[in-house]
């Protein structure tokens, strides 16, 4: 008997990422991407065990995009119906203060998500469009929303509160929410399982380093702090986002350079981080530039590592020491230099990375700390789609 499958959707403004996941077996049977929605030429790619299917066509809107998903999946031999899709899991970036758990979608949920859109104007509106379209095209199965913010709902008030006028903050829902929660939760559970320890008994730091990047402090399975805040801009240096910044910089740029909202948004979200410092946001290309002796790339790398170490230090103290530090995300999973430099010279704190284990290019879950290291250091590939599929099936 084949097991039920979940369709996982991550809808952006001009793209939809999708996976067909077998949540019990724990793997995807196919995954793909619809790109350039609403542009003059769109692109669909679907990767499945039998090969890769590609289509170039005009994709007018999200409805056309989802029809294209149905078409390529069927072209691979089995329609979504024939796969026996039992539910659709939607990734939603911002759940505000309202949503702390995965939730079955109904009209009220959609309304509430729409109300939350100002909190995540770059993400939530397209998430909502994706949900509405999918509900129309797949009306017979339940749809579940899984929030990037949910795992951090448990953060203590002291970690979630910005020290600004409390009335202004309340009126505008200004507080720290945290993001990448699905990944931090999944990776922390895998780390405990890898070590054969109970999640509730260990303290962890998880470093999710991808295009976006975030760190979290997790005490016995409960997140007590994370580096992203009200928006995914706060915290670590990212591909194109600044991470932490003196808020006075924004006031200064406004007063002295006449920068307004849209321009500041573009500066901080798309022209900062590694790209802002050296013109390159892809970490592999950045490393090549460093190897060629490019001083701007070297500085970008150093700023990136410096910020990362600052957060690791903060979370070591917040947790009063840790059992395990785990790297995940495209950079965290694949780049030994960042892992080495982030934890260099911490032998006195019981943190020692083993050179050969760190340099290994294996893709599986693994330990990279030395045998004598009191703190275990792990690399765990994240799998947000699987986590979303499992949360979805658990709910329906
Ligand atoms: P996203 O946040 O978009 O999901 P990923 O987690 O896939 O991103 O991470 C993308 C980043 O990982 C890119 O900067 C990419 O260069 C980097 N990356 C992927 N593979 C490697 C590698 N082998 N070495 C260094 N960086 C890598």
UniProtKB/TrEMBL annotation:
Mg(2+) binds at residues 10, 384. GO terms for biological process: acetate metabolic process; acetyl-CoA biosynthetic process. ATP binds at residues 17, 208-212, 282-284, 330-334. Keywords: ATP-binding, Cytoplasm, Kinase, Magnesium, Metal-binding, Nucleotide-binding, Transferase. Its EC number is 2.7.2.1. Substrate binds at residue 91. It catalyses: acetate + ATP = acetyl phosphate + ADP. It comes from the Bacteria. SUPFAM superfamilies: Actin-like ATPase domain. Pathway: Metabolic intermediate biosynthesis; acetyl-CoA biosynthesis; acetyl-CoA from acetate: step 1/2. It is found in: Cytoplasm. The active site is at 148 (proton donor/acceptor). The record marks 180, 241 as: Transition state stabilizer. Mg(2+). Can also accept Mn(2+). InterPro entries: Ac/propionate_kinase, Aliphatic_acid_kin_short-chain, Aliphatic_acid_kinase_CS, ATPase_NBD. Belongs to the acetokinase family. Homodimer. This is Acetate kinase. The gene is ackA.
């Amino acid at each position: 008997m084949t097991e039920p499958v979940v369709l996982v959707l991550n809808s952006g403004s001009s793209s939809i990422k999708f996976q067909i996941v077998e949540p019990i077996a724990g793997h995807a049977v196919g995954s793909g991407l619809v790109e350039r929605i609403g542009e003059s030429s769109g692109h669909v790619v679907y990767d499945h065990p039998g090969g890769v299917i590609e289509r170039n066509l005009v994709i007018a809107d999200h409805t056309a995009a989802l029809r294209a998903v149905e078409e390529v999946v069927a072209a691979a031999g089995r329609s979504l119906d024939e796969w026996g899709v039992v539910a659709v899991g939607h990734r939603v970036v911002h759940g505000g203060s309202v949503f702390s758990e995965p939730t079955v979608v109904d009209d009220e949920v959609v309304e509430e998500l729409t109300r939350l859109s100002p909190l995540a104007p770059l993400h939530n509106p397209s998430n909502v469009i994706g949900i509405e379209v999918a509900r129309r095209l797949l009306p017979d199965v339940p749809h579940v929303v899984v929030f990037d913010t949910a795992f951090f709902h448990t953060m203590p008030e002291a970690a979630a509160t910005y020290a600004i006028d409390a009335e202004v903050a309340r009126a505008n829902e200004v507080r720290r929410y945290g993001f990448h929660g699905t990944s931090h939760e999944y990776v922390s559970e895998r780390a405990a399982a890898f070590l054969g320890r109970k999640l509730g008994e260990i303290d962890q730091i998880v470093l999710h380093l991808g295009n976006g990047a975030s760190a979290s402090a997790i005490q016995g399975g409960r997140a007590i702090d994370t580096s992203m805040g009200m928006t995914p801009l706060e915290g670590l240096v990212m591909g194109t986002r600044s991470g932490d910044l003196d808020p006075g910089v924004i006031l200064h740029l406004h007063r002295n350079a006449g920068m307004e909202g849209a321009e500041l948004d573009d500066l901080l979200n798309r022209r900062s981080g590694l790209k802002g410092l050296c013109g390159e946001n892809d970490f592999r290309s950045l490393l090549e530039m460093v190897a060629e002796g490019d001083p701007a790339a070297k500085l970008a790398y150093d700023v990136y590592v410096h910020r990362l170490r600052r957060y690791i230090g903060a979370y070591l103290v917040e947790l009063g020491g840790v059992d395990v530090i785990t790297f995940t995300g495209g950079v965290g999973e694949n780049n030994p230099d960042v892992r080495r430099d982030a934890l260099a010279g911490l032998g006195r704190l019981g943190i020692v990375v083993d050179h050969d284990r760190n340099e290994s290019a294996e893709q599986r879950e693994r330990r990279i700390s030395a045998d004598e290291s009191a703190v275990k250091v792990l690399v765990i590939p994240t799998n947000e789609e699987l986590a979303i599929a499992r949360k979805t099936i658990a709910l329906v």
